[in-house]
Write a structure and sequence with these properties.
mainly alpha; 2 domains; 10 helices; Serine Threonine Protein Phosphatase 5, Tetratricopeptide repeat; about 65% helix
Length: about 210
């Protein structure tokens, strides 16, 4: 007996995505979850159906995953460009993350995603990599030039970053209400720090500043 189509068992199209597949699997599973505890033939049939649903979901999920890998691990990144133009940045990033080959075009498109998310510094770094990999590519060079102009014109704008967003513990902050130098440290700060250090040394029998 030929094995049934797993998509047919779950009641979804073969063109469905993984979210749609999981939703169908969950609905069917919930439908038979309680019935399997019923006595007699009804409970036995529900158990068989539950196993069929589990197997169908695993098989269909593997098929979708293999299609996704084949579609997006080559050099054809047109789907990323389409997603960016449609404003679907999460889909674009998902495709980029699943690409095995990180070509110059890959870095160029990653730059576009970062720029749309206002991570300008990260976007520029990706353009630099693209230009290093293909130094004669006019499209990449023009994009890098335009990006540099944008950064220069907006140099006072805070640059949110993919890396800062994911590494918040490494961020540093400056008291913007302070009347001191905006760099966070001035001559008075240095002197105060030295005097404190000298006091500590003297308490331990040393002397950092011999004249005081």
């Amino acid at each position: 007996m030929a094995k049934r189509n797993p998509f047919e068992i779950l009641g979804v199209s073969e063109d469905c995505n993984q979210d749609e597949l999981y939703a169908a699997y969950k609905n069917l599973r919930n439908k038979y979850a309680d019935q399997r505890f019923e006595p007699g033939e009804a409970g036995a049939e529900a158990c068989v159906k539950m196993q069929e649903i589990e197997d169908a979901y695993n098989d269909a999920n593997d098929i979708i995953a293999s299609r996704y890998e084949i579609k997006y691990t080559g050099d054809d990144l047109s789907a990323v460009d389409t997603a960016i133009k449609a404003g679907n940045l999460e889909e674009a990033q998902n495709i980029l993350d699943n690409c095995i080959r990180r070509t110059a075009k890959w870095h160029y498109l990653q730059s576009a995603v970062f720029f749309r998310k206002n991570w300008v510094g990260d976007a520029y770094k990706q353009l630099e990599i693209a230009c290093q990999m293909e130094p004669d590519n006019e499209q990449f060079k023009e994009a890098k030039k335009a990006m540099a102009t944008h950064i220069k014109a907006n140099s006072t704008t805070q640059d949110n970053s993919f890396y800062n967003e994911n590494n918040k513990e490494e961020r540093t902050y400056v008291d913007m209400n302070s009347t001191r130098n905006s760099r966070g440290c001035d001559v008075c700060d240095v002197c105060s720090a030295l005097l404190c250090a000298d006091c500590c040394c003297e308490c331990m029998g040393g002397d950092l500043i011999s004249c005081c």
